Write the C-alpha cells for this entry.
Amino acid sequence: LKKIGVMTSGGDSPGMNAAIRAVVRTCAYHEIECYGIYRGYEGVMEGDFVKMDARSVKGIINKGGTVLKSARSKAFRTKEGRQLAYEKLTEAGIDGLVVIGGDGSFTGAMVFNSEFDFPVMGIPGTIDNDIVGTTHTLGYDTALNTVVEAIDKIRDTASSHNRLFFVEVMGRDVGHIALNVGVGAGAEEILIPEEDLGLDRLIDSLKRSKASGKSSSIVVVAEGDKIGKNVFELKDYVEENMTEYEVRVSVLGHMQRGGSPSCFDRVLASRMGVKAVESLLEGKSNYMVGLKDDIIQITPFDQAVKGKSKINKELLRVSDIMTV
Ligand code: F6P
C-alpha cells in the first residue's frame, strides 16, 4: 500500500480526532501517504480529500467532534454511489481505507470491499458501545463520564425540591450507557431495552424507596427502552399512579456526544489507529479493530455487525442491591 485514506462516518464520538491522529501518524511512521476524507462516504463520492502529515494532526488528541466532519450517507447505499466512490479513490491513488464509525459504516465498508476488493479496516467509533468484537467503542467511556456528571447535577436540584427525575440517555437500541451511568450515579431504577421492568414494578419500587425515607429519586431511561412509553408518557403515568413525588424529565440529548475525550478513549484511539494501519500494511482487510482483555484484536466485519454487544447483567443486580 502507498496511500491510505481515513474518514469518520455516522454519529460522531469523542476520541475520533485522536484516532485520526493515530492513523495519520502511523502512516508517517511507516513512510506511506495519508489522505483525510471529509464527511465520511459523502466525501469519498465527491473526492473531497486532503493530504495529511504528522504535523497536520497536532493539537487534536484532546478535541471532541471530528476535524474530518461526519455524515450518514444514503447515496453510498446504492451501487452507483459505491462505483463513484471507487473511481474517486483510485483516481487519487488511494489504495486502502480506514473507516472510523459504527455498524452502519462497517456494513457499507464490507459491501464496498466485496464489490471492488478494496482494502478496508474499521475502528469502532460510537458512544453506544453496541458493537460485537470490542469491550469498548471509542467515545463510550467519555460519554459515560459526561452523563454521570450531568446526572450528579440533576441530583442536586432533584434533592433540593424532593423531586423524581426521569433522565433519558442515548444508546440507540442498547442499554450500555443507561446501565453503567445508572450504577455510577446511584439511580433508583434503570430502564433499558434488554430488560422489561414493567410499569407496575416501577411504581412499586418508587413507592418503596419513598417509604424507606428517600426524598428524591433518579430513574435513568435508555432512549431505546421498550417499556412501551416514551419518557414524557412515563412521567404522566407515574404522576397518575403515585402522588408521593413531583416529577420532572430531563433528556440529555446530543451533549452526550461532545466534549474532550477521556484518557481511556485517547489511549484506545491511539492503539486502534496503529493496529488499523499496520493490519492494512500486513495485507489484512475487512476487519474491525477492537479491545478484548486489554489486547487490541481484530474481528471480521461480518461478525462485528451481526449482533449487538450484550449488556452486563451483573450490573442490574448490583443496582438492585445498591438501592435497597
Ligand atoms: O449512535 C450514536 C447516537 O448518538 C445514538 O445514541 C442516537 O440514537 C443517535 O446517534 C442520534 O442520531 P442523530 O445524531 O442523527 O440525531
